[in-house]
Amino acid sequence: MTWQQQNLPAGHPAVRSGKVGLLVVNLGTPDEATAPAVKRYLAEFLSDRRVIEIPAIAWQPILRGIILNVRPKKSAAAYAKVWTDQGSPLAAITEAQAVDLQMRLGDDVIVSHAMRYGRPSLRERIAMLQEAGCDRIAIAPLYPQYCAATTATVFDEVARILAEMRWQPALRFVPPYHDDPAYIDALATDLGAQLDSLAFEPEVLLLSFHGMPQRTLDLGDPYHCHCMKTARLLGERIARPGMRIETTFQSRFGKAKWLEPATDATLEAEAHKGTRRLAVAAPGFAADCVETLEELAIAGREQFTEAGGQDYAVLSCLNTSAPGMAMLETIMRRELSGWI
Ligand SMILES: C=CC1=C(C)c2cc3[nH]c(cc4nc(cc5[nH]c(cc1n2)c(C)c5CCC(=O)O)C(CCC(=O)O)=C4C)c(C)c3C=C
Ligand SMILES: [Fe+2]
Ligand SMILES: [Fe+2]
């Protein structure tokens, strides 16, 4: 029996309680690598006021009139280059991380995964956990660096979902882990091993984080500081003679000024100034996705080699690697303490 049904008086509604749930959350991704599917996904994602901080009355005509008519085709082509038999890499890896965590944490907790945009939705998975008897739920946004556009919007959506409930579960939110020794250790171990196995010795290692509008830093979002701290701590651990480490920001969107230096411009500038062997890591992404597998690994290679670079490698994200999963287990056990 998954919940308490005994000793209830006749006619009493079923009582589902006593279990603990853990919901790992990532951004979301299209259901298919087609323009209509990407359009549905981008319409939801780019309508979020945490992501595009422009009043809806000004932004929605631009989104519906221009962006959703132009970008889905281009983005679908990028997704098609990295699509797998299990679907979008981000979806497949996030699900595999939840399955692995379930094995590590055992029966004391029910682990599931959800996406902020698209499927499986937070609404669907919170309902599923409650149905399974969870009256305590920990929400774990898999973003090491806090950002209003990623972390805060998960909190907002969960709050909206709970606002409709009569019996709300107790909630915990797993904090950002940008400087957590377990995270830095996992990255240092995993990236160190990947660097050792390269066929060349990079002169430069780029630590490429997802970009954000510069304005969000000026307004007090800690994202830039979190990225810089991760880069500093990680850099201290993976430094090796002859390898310079640089921090850059990728995936610029729109016309506003974004955090700099930009990854794409840096790839070209490095090649122009004579760097021949370069590797890129993306420590801010918990899972490989279109931004790492296409933008860095495919487009980035073209940018670097066409500008004169020779050897180029993109290192994998932590994904379901042993160091990555051990790190997630450590953080989740700590954040669930007292509950399991
Ligand atoms: C890791 C943190 C991320 C931050 C910060 C972030 C901010 C941010 N992103 C966009 C626009 C797009 N991002 C897209 C994809 C995407 N972004 C992240 C993560 C962060 N985004 C991930 C993990 C992914 C990959 C999703 C996947 O399906 O693989 C896209 C879609 C792809 C494309 O069309 O290029 C857009 C658009 C903005 C505007 C923003 C902050 C303001
Ligand atoms: Fe993004
Ligand atoms: Fe800062």
From TrEMBL:
Keywords: Cytoplasm, Heme biosynthesis, Iron, Lyase, Metal-binding, Porphyrin biosynthesis. Its EC number is 4.98.1.1. Pathway: Porphyrin-containing compound metabolism; protoheme biosynthesis; protoheme from protoporphyrin-IX: step 1/1. GO terms for biological process: heme biosynthetic process. Belongs to the ferrochelatase family. NCBIfam families: hemH. Catalyzes the ferrous insertion into protoporphyrin IX. This is Ferrochelatase. It comes from Altererythrobacter epoxidivorans. The gene is hemH.
